[in-house]
Description:
Oligomer: single chain
Protein name: Rieske 2Fe-2S domain-containing protein
Shape: globular
CATH topology: Rieske Iron-sulfur Protein
Strand content: 35-45%
Organism: Imbroritus primus
Bound molecules: FE2/S2 (inorganic) cluster
Amino acid sequence: MSWKKVCEVADVPRGEMKNFSIGAFEVMVIHGDNGHLVVPPSCPHMENALADGFFDGCVLTCNKHLWQWSIPDAQPIGVAEQALLHYPSEIRDAAIWAEVETELQYCHEDECE
Ligand code: FES
């Protein structure tokens, strides 16, 4: 296991999401009403930045084609066709830590043939 400190809990206020660099790649921390989630920063549908989307504390919406996920369980809602990938994470000493041994990536339609 390779646990890394992502950020301080206070860096991402409730109802917000923010990208952080972890070594050679980025992750996005989502602070929902019911917990945190650490995910790859792009949408599972296409290469769109999830940080450009909308988040109300419970539902994350990609701004490109409006796929949605419930947070923090990462499950798809409505037209979304797959769940968000996410890193195991926990809070230790007011910081968010994640197990980021390998970068989680989506296989987008044009890359999977
Ligand atoms: S790129 Fe996010 S829903 Fe299509």
